[in-house]
Amino acid sequence: MGLFDNLKTAVVKMLSGRNREEQESFAALRAHYVFEAEFCNVRSGNEKGQVENLVGYVRRNALTPLVEVASLEDLNSRILLSWCDRVAETDRVPHTDETVAAVYTREKEALHPLPAQPFEACRICTVKVSKMSTVTFDTNQYSVPCVYVGQTVWVKGFVDRVIVVAQNEVIATHSRCRGRQQMVLELDHYLEVLLKKPRAVRDARAMHDPRVPDVVRRVHAQMRARQHAEGDRLFVRFLLLHREIGMKRLCQALEEAERTRTYHYEGLHDLVMKLTGEAPDSPLDASTVPADLAAYCVQKVNVRMYDRLVHGGDGQ
């Protein structure tokens, strides 16, 4: 059983006494973890005073001075979990002489195991993929693979990420944007259409996203300067290799290309092959060359034969 304030994420309507009309998502949460909810009376803060005090206690002792973390998972695993374990070994349960850890060890024997799958605490909505291959959630646009343009998909909005699902398959995952009216684009989602319209890569918004490494744009500029539209097409074709080797390896190959001034597809592909160990680093050994290779030769063209044709076969 849990004691709850009348927060809007849990309560739709206040009824008589402690009765409440619950939000559908909150009722699903209770059903998933099998617990009962007991709501406080209106304007009765004394009924949950211990909860309010614990919030301040954690803030003062676990989060002071202000900690810096990379994500919510990092905060939970690296900071809060270790702090809770330490405090449980020393703090006493009110009105007893037992530590929190000792009481919890005994209490675990009476607890049911958690469900195999965690509850998806998210807001779900259905949207249609726009012509720009994006879906809109909370005013922000998130990209999906271009093959889904025009289709209706599910968007799951979590506190830290946005997941797009089509036909029971996750097709895109983005960190949730905290701004408004922003575009969050993944370059990979547009590679197939850029392969058909290679000149568009020059000004494609996804290409200039801050998350795209600078070396990608620099090498592309060199290939475009040397081979024009064909350079655009071959560079997009090269980018598709990241699905096989990962963006980190791909960028390593591009950095090596800058160092060796290798700005053509075949050279870039060879660099990737070497990084992945699929190509030899040195020329063929003499023992691996066929013995009769030297016998092969190309006969020189006798240009005098053309003179004979010009003169009706009489040329000398």
UniProtKB/TrEMBL annotation:
Q: Which InterPro entries does the annotation name?
A: IstA-like_C
Q: Name one Pfam family in it.
A: Mu-transpos_C_2
Q: Out of the domains of life, which is the source?
A: Bacteria
Q: Which residues form the Transposase for insertion sequence element IS21-like C-terminal domain?
A: 114-185
Tell me the protein's name. Transposase for insertion sequence element IS21-like C-terminal domain-containing protein
The species is Kyrpidia spormannii
